[in-house]
Amino acid sequence: MNKTCEDIIRKNEELKLLSNLEDIYLSIFHYLKKEFKINQLEILLKTIDKTDTLFKSNDNIFDKFLNNLKFVENENTQVHFIIYSKIQEENDFIVENKPKLKLSLEFFSSSLYNKYLEKSIHELSIVDPVTGAFNRSYLDVYVDNILSISNREQKKVGFLKVGVDKFKAVIDEFDYTIGDKVLIKLTDTLKESVRISDIVIKMSEDEFLVILLNVINENNATIVSEKLINNFSDKKVLVDEDTEQTLKKTICVGMSIYPDDAINVDDAIKKADVALYEARNMGRSKYYKYSEESVNTIDFF
């Protein structure tokens, strides 16, 4: 085995040890920049029905010279390395060294794609397939870490349990397809209404959990609850494309604050459940903050 092959294999083994896809993209780019004087790179993943941009080294690409190197991963998937050059000299160097470049990327594309598959499979296991929200598996694995950070930084965390008012009536009057549309619309509304650092989790058929990080006090959670209720009440779900019939639904929200109301995640969720129950008893589009007094007055049966 010659030194060129040894270097490529060694670099590929380094890539396999990286756990983050972004780190893999950057490592490949830096290698190409060093070995082949490549300053602009775009990595695409193409399947039968779509093309995803995995990496783009520059926002503004100068494409006077372009080399597209394609690697087939399976019958439905290709990885494309698109190399852009500003000047003739850069392009000439790439063309001159293309055999080594292709050999390098043949190794790298397989490692990159395998890591991409690992990430995709992992995401499928923690994401609800209908709504795109995280599911309870995400809650089980990751949320304890959030409370650890909260304790270390002495920050509060808000737990908002969100339930669709009279959701069963949607299924009874229409069907599960329309029910799914309502849940998708709600998921999108929740995500749009909170910060990117906050977390939206689908907990059951018609209930979600919104976790608010770094809450200053109860008033912050109340403001967000009002925002969620108001924003969703304005949304329309298309029921029939031919008649343009639409449906509007409402939600209630139950709130608990960690560590004020709870000692752990399960406790916080249970108390947000209690608060949601009380909110629903008050009518549609209501919110309620958990309190010890409410536990003594709520009749669940």
UniProtKB/TrEMBL annotation:
The lineage of its organism: Bacteria, Pseudomonadati, Campylobacterota, Epsilonproteobacteria, Campylobacterales. This is GGDEF domain-containing protein. It holds the Pfam family GGDEF. It comes from the Bacteria. Residues 155-292 form the GGDEF domain. Transmembrane segments: none annotated.
